[in-house]
Amino acid sequence: MTPRTASDRKAVLDDTEVPSTVVARTDAVSMTYTRGEDPGRLGRTLGRSKAPRVQALSDVSLEIHSGAITGLAGPSGSGKSTLLHILAGLELPTAGRVLLDGRDPAALSTRARTKLRLETVGIVFQHFHLLASLSARANVALPLVELGVSRRERKRRATELLEHVGLGDRVTHRPGELSGGEQQRVAIARALVTDPALVIADEPTGELDTETGAQILEAFADVATDRAVVVASHDQQTLDVADRVVQLHDGEIAADSNNES
Description:
The protein is an alpha/beta fold. Helices cover 32% and strands 25% of the residues. It has a six-stranded mixed beta sheet, with helices on both faces. The chain has a three-stranded antiparallel beta sheet with strand order 2-1-4, covered by helices on one side. Helix 6 packs parallel to helix 7. It is globular and about 50 Å long. About 6% of the residues have low confidence.
């Protein structure tokens, strides 16, 4: 299977195109880590440490629109994962401002920031991050548990999404009973279960063979019809499905180009 390129997607969407909206925006965002610090920790304090500091992002301004896939490209250490974490509200920048669905995560309490992230952002990881002891349906429903959705509604939504990604006959299977591609589909369903405006994926095909990866990219193309998708990848096949590719180098935007021709 060959995944649809950006130009293929544009041809399909031309007749049903909806107005694009800005789902997430960064304004002159910078991120500095103290070397050895856990880069995934929220609310870091740089303090007076004498440890060397690393500039992961520098003055990054970017708008992420609905109805499109934005690809993030660049070598390891270029800032792709850090930018994804900031767009997702998982990290707060050390300088600049982020708007997620029109709200600034830095201006919110920890609880309100978590609620904003759960309601607005779906995240797909390279290594799936599924709980081995839970069924596919229970894994998909997890974000709804945190949002206080009823058990009956959680089951309904999770089942419906698993059917949508072609796993209607796998709802009670645990991750260990699923192939890599099936596990990634479960992860995509989980990312969609709160109906987020933004879906973020970090190397989503990195653990998959070429054919399975192509199927996953088709799923992302479908997801991007009515929401924003941001995908960070080294893989050219993955970047080819993006409508736009942002190249990062040493924490800065080196290029920002359309990918539709």
